[in-house]
Specification:
mainly alpha, 0% strand, globular
Length: 83
């Protein structure tokens, strides 16, 4: 997450995890949303690098990349858990 501080990173992680859980019809708590969002940011960064995308630094682009990564994470976990 380029261009944001630690506080913004935590907020982005919580929001990305929450958006991803709502998108896939799941219900998680605050800490799980944070963990999903932070892991999702790593997955999103890998996807951005893989597809040679160049998002602008800042809050909104970090939120979008993290949310996409979090959705991918929850989707893959759902495949393994049978949801």
């Amino acid at each position: 997450m380029t261009g944001v501080g630690i506080f913004a990173t935590i907020i982005i992680g919580i929001l990305a995890g929450w958006i991803a859980s709502r998108t896939l019809g799941r219900s998680h708590g605050l800490i799980i949303n944070l963990i999903v969002g932070l892991i999702g940011s790593w997955i999103g960064a890998i996807l951005v690098t893989t597809f040679n995308l160049d998002p602008q630094p800042g809050f909104i682009s970090s939120l979008v990349v993290s949310t996409v990564g979090a959705i991918v994470l929850l989707f893959l976990l759902g495949l393994f858990r049978g949801r």
